[in-house]
Queue: 3 jobs
Job 1
Amino acid sequence: MGNILRKRHLVDRSGHTTEKGFEVLRLLLENARMRSERLPLETWKELGRGGGIFVPVPIEMVISCDRGRGREIFLARRPATDPDFPGLLHVPGVYLKPGEEMFDTCQRIAKDELPGITVTEVIDVIGTSNNRRNPRFHDFSAITVVRYIGEPESSTDGGWYLLNEQPPENMISWHRTSLWPQIQTWAFFSE
């Protein structure tokens, strides 16, 4: 795909987007928005990876509680069929959509990944993670803490994990090495 973009002068030899490339992207996105269509996932992946046009921002949502054993967070599990992270635990999250409020993004996370939870308030963004080695494409996470009501349904394949312990080994690597320590620090100072 990178060669096609270079041949059409949408990216330069270094892989950076040219003015023509940005104009084509603007027209593509405007056309999709006007027709109320979603761009295919492969298009977004290419725009973020080979096209180098933008860096997507996932919102990683922390739901936390203390059940008498210490501060815990809920980790969801990717399906076994996930092409990039099969069966791995992760901090639930989705990509922020253009024009979307953080509260709406967190409601979408609850609906998609945590049935039984209703987000009542976005408390704070407690950290970030610049993940250049994501196998899908480079992204920049915002670690967000919310207030919520409810409990994740038993059908949710995940569980509660104590923050005063080491992260689970079967967790997406940068969630374990970058997100977990930042969430631990927040938990320590928020008590």
Note: The longest helix spans residues 173-190.
Job 2
Amino acid sequence: MAKAGHIVQAGRGRYDVAAIVPRYCEHLRKLALGRGGEPAIAAATKERARLAKAQADMVKIKCRVLQGALLDAEAVERQWSSILSMVRAGMPAVPSRASQRSTSHAIRRLGDRRRDQGRADGAGSGQASMMVCGSLSCCGINRIAMGSTVP
């Protein structure tokens, strides 16, 4: 660098820093011009800024994952697929289960009405007349005898 004139010696092993800095900066500018000049420098600066932002974003994401605020999308998809497979497998059994439950629900309702009717009669004879509307189809029973006595 001293032979090329970029560094000025003030003596043996000594250098004039005040003269060296401007000359060295000029040397670097000339090198940059050979590589594209100011547009190349501006593009490189933008690229470094973009890289720094991407790295900062990755650090934020890793922190959120470690905190438990973010989940792995593939793991979530696998879990939901498993849940939906179980639901899909259970769907064919829904009609039979619903009819069983609605029938047992209707029987419980009839038993409750029988007890309530017996208390209302106050007879204590163990027999109560049961008046039920004829359309308990919502409970799975289509026809119930109206006014019959229940032992």
Note: Residues 124-151 have pLDDT under 50 and may be disordered.
Job 3
Amino acid sequence: MNSQTVKHPDAGVAPLGVLLVNLGTPDSPSVADVRRYLREFLWDPRVVEVARPVWWLVLNLVILTTRPRRSAKAYAKVWTAAGSPLLVISRKQQAALQASLDERLYEGALLRALGASRRQLRAGHLAEFIALGLLAGLVAAIGTECLAWVLYSQVLHFDYSFKWQVWLAAPLLGAVLIGAAGYHGTRAVVRRSPVLLLRER
């Protein structure tokens, strides 16, 4: 008896994954939850690059005894019935991203069925993700500078000067990383059978 293996059109296509990250949020605008969040966030050596023994004294004896109450009032002003705005928005982004990924597969299959080549689709994806990376890098630079300014000037009461290197490096790095990740991750869009995708739709 002869046996024959038939390769499925989708075989060998790596699953597409997207990682969403943010700086975190307290569980509630209460002073206790804000203090716990600040302790965890500000103790991270990637956030504050100061010798640990010195920073432990500053953090626990100065910042965590004064800052949580003021920060809790600020959080209370923007807190919503659904919870932390950052967490709520992140969950909405997750849902929207999942929907857009499904839609991207369908659009890719439709364009393939209409005659678009794989090279054309991949060039379009690359340009799209590079632009997205530039925008994400710019937003990251703005957020980083604002967070650093608040931390240095409002919490630690140090002088702070904005760093132009961040504004140059962040968009370029975002374009390279997101462009490469997006180009690699959307292989499924051009490698999956358009006939099967359209049938599933």
Note: Confidence is low (pLDDT under 50) at residues 1-14.
